[in-house]
Hints:
Largest sheet: 11 strands, antiparallel
Radius of gyration: 19 Å
Strand content: 25-35%
Mean pLDDT: 87
Shape: globular
Number of domains: 2
Oligomer: single chain
Structural class: alpha+beta
Amino acid sequence: xxxxxxxxxxxxxxxxxxxxxxxxxxxxxxxxxxxxxxxxxxxxxxxxxxxxxxxxxxxxxxxxxxxxxxxxxxxxxxxxxxxxxxxxxxxxxxxxxxxxxxxxxxxxxxxxxxxxxxxxxxxxxxxxxxxxxxxxxxxxxxxxxxxxxxxxxxxxxxxxxxxxxxxxxxxxxxxxxxxxxxxxxxxxxxxxxxxxxxxxxxxxxxxxxxxxxxxxxxxxxxxxxxxxxxxxxxxxxxxxxxxxxxxxxxxxxxxxxxxxxxxxxxxxxxxxxxxxxxxxxxxxxxxxxxxxxxxxxxxxxxxxxxxxxxxx
Length: 312
């Protein structure tokens, strides 16, 4: 079956899961405005870390959140995820680690809480970590997350705040946490996500990643760790989602022109099935999530394209 036909069949097979909730849309709108890459997942898809602290492909974007909550206090992670309906991540400002490790970036997680929850994050974190007793409560704690690479063992600073019984925000940057909190608090009337191509399709998936390229920003110090190596000026966005029943991932590249320079470049750079045209200014491939011959490393290689690479 040709790729365009197979992709259409996959989309039809996936059907239409429950629509994104208003609060998920609020979180996505703020993160898309403030960050270059945004990921979304359901709490059920977050895998528990293994004995060595690693996580699987779909859990990789959320590794710092899970490990950070584990360091906050007993039952913090379990309680937060139990009352969550969705978890989103925004990242930007990509830098190489010192030695081996994950790409260093500014991260902000938005945990969307389910209706009727009664969670209070203050129950699970040490009271001494509260930064201020005036204004919105913000907690800060230190955690050894390996954030800066194997040669830089300094602990990470983790900041968290709760917005009523609607959101819990966790970030490695205090200013980003404050700004995202202010914007989420100000949005009450079901904001639309604007300027995000194919949003109506993307938002119906349980797990997705979306990178909107910022060509107006200065070039990254390392295009490899930033995930922008081979990206041409006409590339608009990169989208990732999965078909759980077929245990496959789908990668879509969106461009402003019919030129396939970026598609050819990424195919040459990465060990993955070739990106092929499926529409005007759209290229796609389907890759296995499980071990499958020459493409067994594809899922984790693709994370590099979203600024979430891991040097091992």
